[in-house]
Write a structure and sequence with these properties.
Layout (H helix, E strand, L loop, with lengths): L1 H13 L7 E3 L2 E3 L46 H6 L77 E4 L2 E5 L3 H9 L4 E6 L6 H9 L3 E6 L7 H10 L8 E5 L3 H13 L5 H10 L9 H16 L2
Parallel strand pairs: 4-7, 5-6, 5-7
Antiparallel strand pairs: 1-2, 3-4
Amino acid sequence: MRRRLFLMLMLAGSAGCGTTRQSCGPVTCFPRYTGPTPGVAPCDRCRQGVPAPAPLAPIPVPLAPAATAFPATAPLDSVAGAFPPGSYSSSASIDAAGRSPVDPGVRLFAPEPAGPDSPRDTTRLYGPPTQEPPAAPMPSAPDDPNAAPPLPVDIPGFAAAKDRVANGLQPFPDGIAWLQAHHYRTVLHVRAPGEDDSAARRQFERRDLRYLSLEASPETLNRDVVERFNRTVREEGDLPMFVYDRDGAVAGGLWYLHFRTAEGMTDERARSEAARLGFRPDGDGEQRTMWVAVQGYLSNLNP
């Protein structure tokens, strides 16, 4: 009983003392405490002869570094490293002026409402492109009655020899139809002596084309053959006319003689016109043979 009372007296005497234990009479107290404890009387007995402790210095609170300007291309890690954890301020810590207590130089403003004049997002999503219908063909110009007819593709070597007279090689069936469609009247076939021409005659006469044939070769070239050729290609009633042979050698030689004897052309121009129609004086085979026969005919004509 006495021991419990002694402990209670010790506790009552030490209430309100500081944290540094000192001997102060019959009780132990802590004189570093400078203020009274709420609800407990001050310990005046313990403060006798003890100097007052120095006031506690305030602990400085580190401020966040000032806002740093970063280039537009600065990586996110470098931007985030400039603000250590704990230095960010939430929206609740922004004052009425829009300033953050952590960084007074930074102002945060509320987003402005979009007005009628503010730019809007013009992004559009388009579906897959649709295939446009092919354009309508342009109407063709009317045929010019004075224009030369287009060249056929089924008559090898086709070329105009003179007015309303054309020259070439053996036509294909579609080429014969083309001659009929373009109002040709006569066909002159220059063939080798004794050559059967019955099949060729039937092909052209079936298309209502007048068929004429002339036997000629380098060996049989004479004045009668040349004059017959000149009369035929100038006969007005047989025009328009198409002249052809097997390879262009014999008909080309006759055209060269026609230009020299009937048209009065020079040798150079007659060669050029005959070459355009398939005659090759410097060629081989029958081309070369026909050129020798042509030179012999001119020599006999003008001794």
